[in-house]
TrEMBL record:
Residues 65-378 form the Dihydroxy-acid/6-phosphogluconate dehydratase N-terminal domain. Residues 406-596 form the Dihydroxy-acid/6-phosphogluconate dehydratase C-terminal domain. Its EC number is 4.2.1.12. GO terms for cellular component: cytosol. It comes from Paracoccus aestuarii. This is Phosphogluconate dehydratase. Pathway: Carbohydrate metabolism; Entner-Doudoroff pathway. The gene is edd.
Length: 600
């Protein structure tokens, strides 16, 4: 199938924009690779330190077996990462069987946004991505590894690990998922109880029971938020094994997939004939494929922030216009909560990523000729894994959807476009996701109420202050102000107002969760208010127009351009719960339109 003209055009634009940076990057990783396995050049003392605690130290000292480094985000605070506790022993045994040695190179932090939503700790969340990249860099700095296996799932963890894998792009990288928890309380029922709690219809005991029934075991949360969007990306970008993203934890198939991932990590080092450096996988085509997957699945808006940072680490420069243009070309093929009632287990059972990849490849909407860890192109990802004894065999995946209420073909999608829009106007640039927003709510012209934190919005709601159509502006929420926290805890409040018949919207230089959906939200507005951006010139009562159809976001006040910005007062957001440790990050963070990066 001929590549779709829009995919071709956007890829060429990214390639041209990135010509110098990508060229310099490829030259850098070529220099890093040219000397072969680095540990061969270590002194005897260096090597003795590196191997002292290994059972396989003789192999390390005397043979040229590949040495695989594990970078793990294990902790048991995150249900998605708890299964990783057992992975190092499994990987060591599988490595020996594959003729390799294995070491845990290091750990990286992994925080749970579900725990920190609406709390001060959320202001560390975005910056944890760059800390993860730094931590993985420290782990790999020992320079003893022929390939690396990255164990991570959730929101900032995979983007941070990709930034590190790209930086160490001469080392092959295999990403290893842990899988989603089994389905619990349906997401729409959970959402209903949250809104009932927001209006006082039910008490905290009912809310707690619903939440515990939703988040009930090891594995990724089952809604299609940032964590599961990350898993989709790794498959679309060729860094997972085919069909491995949404297999439940602690099952025989999950364990066999991990063993198969070790076998690939051992096979693709520069000691053999299938050398596949991570930096060659992570080219502009892979990032375009990832964005196509984001649009086709209705994935998390957080990846609009993370993908530019991930790409920059590989010398690839993305812009939000690339997301907009690809969204216009790619159909929305999936309905998974919050864009529908199904969860990722239902999506996987309906045909999942393999079915989507086949459809998108047939439609010319993906680059097939990319490098992947399989040794083949993207067409190898239309297959699905099956157990054959204790081993894996891959067979052709579903060629027809098994549930067209969840998953549809590219030629008969839920919507003709991916639903992500670029917004521009005198308030700056940002994005809005409309795939779950009713068409009649995508244009709103209303006066604004301005707030400087989430709790003030909830206080105004409880006081009954929202009685007419309103655009809620929560400013000073960008990376330089307070680390750009998610504002997901506002979703039930704004949804209640919308359900009462009001037209409401959110405008912010902060983020919304990947689980947010039906309330129109103009997010990631840049320049941010703390840097003197246009949001800092708004006043209560200004008339704003948010038009997701034309992509305009504008203040209609005639004197708007002549006003002085309100100065930023960080107040209590600058210290407590570790926030004071991140002052240096806030001082240098880039704009949201470029990924809000600190280290890239």
């Amino acid at each position: 199938m001929t590549l779709h003209a829009s995919i071709d055009r956007v890829t060429d634009r990214i390639r041209e924009r990135s010509r110098d940076s990508r060229g310099a990057y490829l030259a850098k990783i070529a220099r890093a690779a040219q000397d072969g396995p680095a540990r061969a050049h270590l002194s005897c003392g260096n090597q003795a330190h590196a191997y002292a605690a290994m059972d396989d130290k003789a192999d390390m000292a005397e043979t040229r077996k590949p040495n695989i480094g594990i970078v793990t985000a294990y902790n048991d605070m995150l249900s998605a990462h708890q299964p990783y506790e057992r992975y190092p022993d499994l990987i060591r045994a599988a490595g020996r069987a594959a003729g390799a040695t294995v070491q845990v190179a290091g750990g990286v932090p992994a925080m749970c946004d579900g725990v920190t939503q609406g709390r001060p700790g959320m202001e560390l969340s975005l910056f944890s991505r760059d800390v993860i990249a730094l931590s993985a860099g420290v782990a790999l700095s020992h320079d003893c590894f022929d390939s690396a296996m990255y164990l991570g799932v959730c929101d900032k963890i995979v983007p941070g690990l990709i930034m590190a894998a790209a930086t160490f792009g001469h080392i092959p990288a295999v990403f290893v998922p842990a899988g989603p928890m089994p389905s619990g309380l349906p997401n729409d029922e959970k959402s209903k109880v949250r809104q009932q709690f927001a209006t006082g219809e039910v008490g905290r005991d009912a809310l707690m029971a619903a939440e515990m029934a939703s988040y009930h075991s090891a594995g990724t949360c089952t809604f299609y938020g940032t964590a599961n969007t990350n898993q989709m990306l790794m498959e679309f970008m060729g860094l997972h094994l085919p069909g491995s993203s949404f297999v439940n934890p602690n099952t025989p198939l999950r364990e066999a997939l991990t063993v198969a991932a070790v076998q690939r990590a051992a096979a693709i080092t520069n000691l053999g004939n299938e050398y596949t450096p991570a930096g060659h996988v992570l080219d502009e085509r892979a990032f375009v494929n990832g964005i196509v997957g984001l649009m086709a699945t209705g994935g998390s808006t957080n990846l609009v922030l993370h993908l530019p940072a991930m790409a920059r680490a590989a010398g690839v420069l993305l812009d939000i216009e690339d997301f907009h243009d690809l969204s216009e070309a790619v159909p929305l093929m999936a309905r998974v909560y919050p864009n529908g009632l199904a969860d990722v287990n239902h999506f996987h059972a309906a045909g999942g990523l393999g079915y989507m990849l086949g459809q998108l490849l047939d439609a010319g909407l993906l680059h097939p000729d990319v490098k992947t860890i399989t040794g083949g192109g993207l067409d190898s990802y239309v297959r699905e894994p099956k157990l054959d004894g204790d081993a894996i065999r891959w067979e052709d995946g579903a060629r027809a959807t098994l549930n067209d209420r969840i998953l549809r073909p590219a030629g008969d999608p839920f919507a003709a476009t991916g639903g992500l829009k670029q917004l521009q106007g005198n308030l700056g640039r940002g994005v809005i996701k409309v795939s779950a927003v009713a068409p009649e709510r995508r244009v709103i012209e209303a006066p604004v109420r301005i707030f400087h934190d989430q709790e003030s919005v909830k206080t105004a709601f409880r006081a009954g202050e929202f009685t007419g159509d309103t655009i809620v502006v929560v400013r000073f929420q960008g990376p330089r102000a307070n680390g750009m926290p998610e504002l997901h805890s506002l979703t039930p409040t704004l949804a209640v107002l919308q359900d009462r018949g009001l037209k409401v919207a959110l405008v912010t230089d902060g983020r919304m969760s990947g689980a947010s959906g039906k309330v129109p939200a103009a997010i990631h507005i840049a320049p941010e208010a703390a840097s003197g951006g246009p949001l800092a010139r708004l006043r209560d009562g200004d008339l704003l127009r948010l038009d997701a159809e034309t992509g305009r976001l504008e203040c209609l006040a005639p004197d708007f351009d002549d006003r002085d910005p309100v100065p930023f007062d960080g107040g209590d957001s600058q210290e407590g719960l570790g926030r004071e440790l991140f002052a240096a990050f806030r001082a240098v963070a880039g704009p949201a339109t470029e990924g809000a990066g600190v280290v890239v």
